[in-house]
Amino acid sequence: MSNSASAGGLARLCDFLGQSPTPWHATQCMAQRLEATGFRRLEETAAWQLSPGERFYVTRNDSSIIAVQLPQGELQSLRMLGAHTDSPGLRLKPNAVQHAAGWLQLGVEVYGGMLFNPWFDRDLGLAGRVHVRHADGRLESVLLNVDKPIAIIPSLAIHLDRDVNNGRAVNPQTQMAPVVMQTEQAEFTPLLEGWLHEQHGLENIQVMDFELAFYDLQPAALVGLKQELLASARLDNLLSCFIGLEALLESDGSQGALFVASDHEEVGSASACGAQGPFLGDVLKRINAQIGKGGEEALIRLIQSSCMISCDNAHALHPNFSDKHDAAHGPRINGGPVIKVNANQRYATNSATSALFRDLCREVGVPVQTFVTRADMGCGSTIGPITATEVGVPTLDVGVAQWAMHSIRETAGSQDVVHLTRVLTAFLNRRQLN
After folding, report:
1. Are 127 and 25 within 8 A, CB to CB?
2. For the chain, which residues make up each domain, given as ranges?
3. Phi, psi of 112 (to 5 degrees)
4. Could you give the CA distance from residue 343 to residue 350 in angstroms, rounded to a whole number?
5. Which of 32, 122, 144, 222 sits between 20 and 30 A of 327, alpha carbons compared?
């Protein structure tokens, strides 16, 4: 991949990150790009008519997406890429309005395992989806993105809390409600209706419900004297979504390929559109029924002949906290993709799937690293073990090394974006998986 192609990919990545403040926006962005490159949208509620060589995509809950590239010949296996669309953050409560000291605040609940402190003193926007009722009784789901600084969570001055730098805990219920407007009395619904009118021209509507989240307005940026670093919100795991989609679109189309980006990974994946739900399995059954050989046995043979690479970022060796890593397993930023291993199956990697990935890295000349957590520390997990359990497909976990996972602003290596894209593209083009 040339330097100009690399620069173009990073520009697309920064644009994608800026347009994807929520899983619904990320899914919309990916759907638009798929359609622009010839993928056909299918609806789960409609009958499907599939043919060899076809490219299509389908969404569920508007926050999860599966894109499929069928081979021209017989479908014998699928090269699958997996990621997730959600990130930890602050979600608006249904009855969010609070008043204190002459200010309108909006109550929030914590989504996923987020770092609290970096959210203070940030310019915050608000985004998500809103369900409205029109005057004729029609219900509609509308995406909303208030991409201007409408809120902030102010810190308490050190003069009023001299022990703040000694490890004081943050209470998200009482200390993290964003400040929105100076007023003694105000309601949230009129504000919401005003934003919907401003963005979509909607009038004479009734807001029925919403799923909204605050987000940091600071745009993605290349950082460092040589721009070695990429800093942005939601790199975990929109970075993997972008890389997976890039690989799919750059592949030559000779092999059966599938890309799935699921919602709700940060809260366990147990939902209809999460990795623990039936979304991927439903799509595989429909593909097998029309393009495969049909029947349960044929579906099992298809799945066992396939392979899934679950992509979710890995913990990079931190220069200020190097003792947090096993001495032999500290992935370095811009050191290449990271194979994630855990003996207790928190990651789905085994020696067979790891060997395949290492061979792909060798094939395209990309360095490869391995992450194993310290034996005296707990280990997170990904959609990899869940997908392997639910679907039965051979799976491995890989990712780009990053710092500050689950912070409001995370950091990864700009060259690792190119590295992983190249390897995943080779995986989708590979004729033999074993």
Report:
1. yes
2. 3-87+233-429, 89-216
3. 80, -175
4. 9
5. 222
